[in-house]
């Protein structure tokens, strides 16, 4: 089961980009450009694991929409251009899980989404790519039904690539997401783990080295 | 040193000098007067003594036979007139003396038998006045002295000096106290002014002083309050303006953030994601529209900030101006399928043609945007009568509660539609700024569902 995410954002460029990013990461995303329309649609279908809400919305603003989300038990991350702390405090005090200030980095958005989903216990712990299934709960990897042994670090690098599937992730970012902080100058370690993953999981073509940028796990 | 202290000190010094000078001269005058009285008295006493003694002694003792008789007669005659201050001497020897001093030591005897000038001397701590002169009795020369002890006169003088000093000191102290009180009283308003000035400097701009005296300080107080009024007004104007500017900058930042976010996200996608051909095209299209939006925003911001200043006015042929406006908006109107008709009853007006073109352009584009996409006819009417420019549409109109806010920067009645139509949110703010720069008034007449007329009337 893919995690289902509701996006309410009136700016077409931002909406489309966020949708693409969500699709890449294997989320099921539904988007609205108007608060009222989103609220109406929720009456029929409210099986969402998370909502990404803009605050300044036509129809009904993000703070109002939050009340409806609360009614259906959908956790909320605000995407806001309002940098004044007053609205941040209001958003979080009302019970939003997180907020992200525009302009934001899409990779960071993905990490925050995952954290919130884990926190509220809705995280779908299983990633799939080709015939490979990665379960982050049991820390097991199967390929074509057969179990594959991975070192812990190899497993973490694989999950980071899966988290940002179809997006290039720099070596620094991989280090950061796997170890939790910057291991400057240790990026060679990433290359070693990547080549091990390629070999063990037969992902020579799927994990692409993008010149000067990093690695990309392609699956489309 | 505080002003009242300085004034008090100065006045006290002057007071002291004057009182001391007066006291001293009075004291000296009194002393001299008293002393000269004593001197005269001693002189007269000696004169009387000498004359009386001389006459009597010459009458009785002038022809005495023997020296002993002569001596006793002379002694007798002298004692008849003498008291304890009298001394009679012959050849440097005291014949009769009521005192212990030898007066001849102090007084130079003159040869003439005239008047004796008293001499003041101090002997063993006593002040004495000694007057002496010679006389002859029966061919023998006698010296007659009066030795008057005038110590008590000097004592009186020094007592008087002490009293003078006491009175002077008292007057000086009393004077100084009175001066201090008076000066403090008259400088208290200055202290009040100073305190008020400090409070104002610390930000209490509403502070005023209460000084009701009718002198220069009272005037200063009034002027001070007037100044404080002016400062308060100016400060509140400035802070209002600051607040407006802060809001405006906040609005600008907010307006920039949305297209920026779109740009960043799509640039990131293009660079990092393996997009399909269609997705790539869509991303590029988003980048193009977002960039155009930013460009419009900056253009309008520039116009908004520059048309705020003093503008150049000139006499302009209005039909020509309207032709230029029409030509300028034509492409946009065609795009939206709107039709502009122009009516002009005015030949020339004094205005800034570039800014007025921009103003009319904005109003016409807004009018065109007031129609829904599927409205078949989209008439826009631009009329000029007298000094009034009017732009009318029969579009959707503006809700009553929004009319007051439409000239605020970044206010949009319908946010998403305005963005779809490429609005920067600054069009009407620009119209207002340009109208203000011309000193023109704007009226908005709108009814939801019926249409809107915006009129700009030049002064």
Question: What would you note in describing this structure?
Answer:
The complex is a heterodimer of chains A (220) and B (459). Chain A is α/β, with parallel strands linked by helices and 220 residues long. The longest helix of chain A is centred in the last third of the chain and has 15 residues, at 187-201. A 5-stranded parallel sheet of chain A has the order 2-1-3-4-5, sandwiched between helices. In chain A, strands 6-7-8-9 form a 4-stranded antiparallel sheet, covered by helices on one side. Chain A has 2 domains: 4-119, Rossmann fold (3-Layer(aba) Sandwich), CATH 3.40.50; 126-217, Winged helix-like DNA-binding domain superfamily/Winged helix DNA-binding domain (Arc Repressor Mutant, subunit A, Orthogonal Bundle). Chain A has helices at residues 12-24, 35-44, 62-71, 85-93, 106-119, 152-163, 171-179, 187-201, and strands spanning 4-8, 28-32, 50-54, 76-80, 98-101, 126-129, 132-135, 140-143, 146-148, 207-210, 214-217. Helix content of chain B is 59%, strand content 17%. Chain B has a 5-stranded antiparallel sheet with strand order 2-1-5-4-3, with helices on one face. A 5-stranded mixed sheet of chain B has the order 7-9-10-12-11, covered by helices on one side. The chains are: A alpha/beta (220), B alpha+beta (459). At the A-B interface, helix 1 of A face helix 4, helix 5 and helix 9 of B.
Outline:
The complex is a heterodimer of chains A (220) and B (459). Chain A is an alpha/beta fold and 220 residues long.
Model regions low in confidence, pLDDT < 50 over at least 5 residues of chain B:
none
CATH architecture label name of the largest domain in chain A: 3-Layer(aba) Sandwich
User: What proportion of the residues of chain A form beta strands (DSSP E)?
Assistant: 15-25%
- The proportion of residues in beta strands of chain B is 15-25%
- How are the strands of the largest sheet of chain B arranged? 2-1-5-4-3
Class from helix and strand fractions of chain B: alpha+beta
Mean pLDDT of chain B: 85
Broad CATH class of the largest domain in chain A: Alpha Beta
Order of helices and strands of chain A: EHEHEHEHEHEEEEHHHEE
Contiguous low-pLDDT stretches of chain A (5 residues minimum) are none
Q: What is the radius of gyration of chain A?
A: 19 Å
């Amino acid at each position: 089961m893919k995690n289902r995410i509701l996006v309410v954002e009136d700016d077409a460029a931002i909406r489309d980009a966020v949708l693409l990013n969500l699709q890449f990461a294997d989320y099921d995303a539904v988007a609205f450009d108007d608060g009222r329309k989103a609220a109406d649609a929720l009456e029929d279908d409210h099986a969402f694991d998370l909502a990404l809400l803009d605050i300044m919305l036509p129809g009904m603003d993000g703070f109002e929409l939050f009340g409806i989300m609360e009614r259906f038990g959908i956790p909320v991350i605000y995407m806001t251009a309002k940098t004044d702390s007053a609205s941040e405090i209001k958003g979080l005090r009302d019970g939003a899980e997180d907020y992200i200030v525009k302009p934001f980095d899409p990779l960071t958005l993905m990490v925050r989404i995952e954290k919130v989903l884990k926190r509220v216990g809705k995280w779908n712990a299983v990633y799939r790519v080709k015939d490979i299934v990665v379960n982050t709960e049991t820390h097991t990897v199967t390929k074509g039904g057969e179990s594959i042994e991975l070192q812990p670090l190899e497993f973490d690098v694989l999950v980071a690539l899966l988290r940002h599937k179809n997006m290039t992730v720099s070596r620094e970012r991989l280090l950061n997401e796997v170890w939790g902080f910057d291991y400057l100058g240790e990026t060679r370690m990433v290359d070693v783990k990547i080549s091990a993953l390629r070999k063990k999981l037969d992902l020579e073509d799927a994990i692409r080295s993008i010149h000067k940028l990093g690695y990309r796990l392609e699956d489309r | 040193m505080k002003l009242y202290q300085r004034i008090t000190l100065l006045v006290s010094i002057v007071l002291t000098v004057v009182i001391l000078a007066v006291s001293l001269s009075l004291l000296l005058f009194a002393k001299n007067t008293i002393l000269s009285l004593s001197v005269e008295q001693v002189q007269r006493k000696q004169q009387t003594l000498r004359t009386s003694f001389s006459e009597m002694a010459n009458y009785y003792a002038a022809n005495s036979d023997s020296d002993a008789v002569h001596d006793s007669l002379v002694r007798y005659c002298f004692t008849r007139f003498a008291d304890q201050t009298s001394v009679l001497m012959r050849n440097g020897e005291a014949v009769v003396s009521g005192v212990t001093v030898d007066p001849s030591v102090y007084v130079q005897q003159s040869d003439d038998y005239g008047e004796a000038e008293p001499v003041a001397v101090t002997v063993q701590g006593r002040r004495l006045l000694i007057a002496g002169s010679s006389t002859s009795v029966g061919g023998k020369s006698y010296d007659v002295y009066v030795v008057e002890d005038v110590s008590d006169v000097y004592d009186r003088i020094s007592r008087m000096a002490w009293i003078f000093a006491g009175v002077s000191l008292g007057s000086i102290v009393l004077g100084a106290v009175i001066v201090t009180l008076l000066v403090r009283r008259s400088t208290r308003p200055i202290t009040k002014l100073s305190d008020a000035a400090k409070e104002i400097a610390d930000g209490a701009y509403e502070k005023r002083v209460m000084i009701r005296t009718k002198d220069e300080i009272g005037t200063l107080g009034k002027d001070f309050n007037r100044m404080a009024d002016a400062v308060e007004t100016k400060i509140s104007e400035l802070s209002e303006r600051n607040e407006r500017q802060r809001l405006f900058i906040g609005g600008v930042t907010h307006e920039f953030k949305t297209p920026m976010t779109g740009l960043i996200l799509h640039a990131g996608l293009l660079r990092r994601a393996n997009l399909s051909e269609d997705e790539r095209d869509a991303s590029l299209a988003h980048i193009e529209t977002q960039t155009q939006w930013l460009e419009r925003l900056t253009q309008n911001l520039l116009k908004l900030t520059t048309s705020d200043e003093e503008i150049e006015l000139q006499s302009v042929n209005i039909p020509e101006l309207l032709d230029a406006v029409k030509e300028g908006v034509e492409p946009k109107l065609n795009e939206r399928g709107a039709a502009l008709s122009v009516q002009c009853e005015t030949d020339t007006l004094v205005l800034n043609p570039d800014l007025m073109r921009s103003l009319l352009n904005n109003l016409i584009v807004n009018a065109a945007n007031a129609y829904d996409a599927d409205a078949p006819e989209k008439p826009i009417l631009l009329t000029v009568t007298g000094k009034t420019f009017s732009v009318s549409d029969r579009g959707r109109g503006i809700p009553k509660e929004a009319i007051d806010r439409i000239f605020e920067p970044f206010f949009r009645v319908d946010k998403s539609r305005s963005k779809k139509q490429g609005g920067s949110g600054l069009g009407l703010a620009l119209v207002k700024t340009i109208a203000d720069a011309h000193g023109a008034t704007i009226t908005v007449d709108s009814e939801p569902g019926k249409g809107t007329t915006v009129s700009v009337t030049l002064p």
